[in-house]
Write a structure and sequence with these properties.
By secondary structure, this protein is α/β, with parallel strands linked by helices. Strands 2-1-3-4-5-6-7 form a seven-stranded mixed sheet. It is globular, with a radius of gyration of 17 Å.
């Protein structure tokens, strides 16, 4: 087997880095967080997950000279025209926490019947060899559910307590971690990335 190739991950979160390392363990990559290399987070002004993931990966690659990996994810609610979308983490304001974001979401959906509360979690993962890479590898994962009338469950994070998963009969916050991590939007995206990036690395 060839020696693992060093890549930078556009994150400063050790837990997220560990999760990504586990998800990409089948690939010959040595992953390091951009924060470990002194790189500050990129701005995320774009209106789509794909554009923000590309911005983050390009920033990390340009700042370090290494191939880069970045992801962007969030929740889109059909009855709200796709909101909170790329503003999922700050739906209730720049300094909002999960509880405040969930409260604002439920308030925005007040009076909307269950059948119209369809929602989708999205995750976009981008891998690029260099900041000017014209053909970055892009993988997208989607997880469909509904927004519950009230929070349930203590697991997960973000909007998990109100994201009802119909085929499981519970919210994402009520799923065992290993179950959630096998069926979530992030799991789908990284499975696709492993297949696509694996083929790309093998051709290099």
């Amino acid at each position: 087997m060839s020696r693992p190739r060093r890549w930078v991950v556009a994150t400063g979160n050790p837990g997220k880095l560990a999760e990504i390392r586990a998800l990409l363990s089948d690939l010959p990559l040595d992953l390091v967080a951009q924060s470990e290399l002194g790189v500050a987070p990129a701005d995320e002004p774009a209106p789509t997950f794909v554009e923000n993931a590309l911005l983050k990966a390009r920033h990390a690659a340009r700042s370090t000279g290494l191939p880069a990996l970045a992801d962007d994810s969030g929740l889109a609610v059909d009855a709200l025209g796709g909101l909170p979308g790329v503003r999922s983490a700050r739906f209730a304001g720049p300094a909002a926490d999960d509880r405040a974001n969930v409260a604002r979401l439920l308030d925005a959906l007040d009076g909307v019947p269950l059948e119209r509360r369809t929602a989708h979690f999205y995750c976009v993962v981008v891998a690029m060899d260099a900041p000017d890479d014209p053909t970055p590898t892009i993988a997208i994962g989607r997880w469909t559910g509904r927004i519950a009338l009230e929070p349930s469950g203590t697991g997960g994070f973000g909007y998990d307590p109100v994201f009802f998963v119909p085929d499981r009969g519970c919210t994402a916050a009520q799923l065992a971690p290993e179950v959630k991590n096998s069926i979530s939007h992030r799991a789908h995206a990284f499975r696709r990335l492993v297949a696509e990036l694996g083929a790309r690395l093998g051709a290099q």
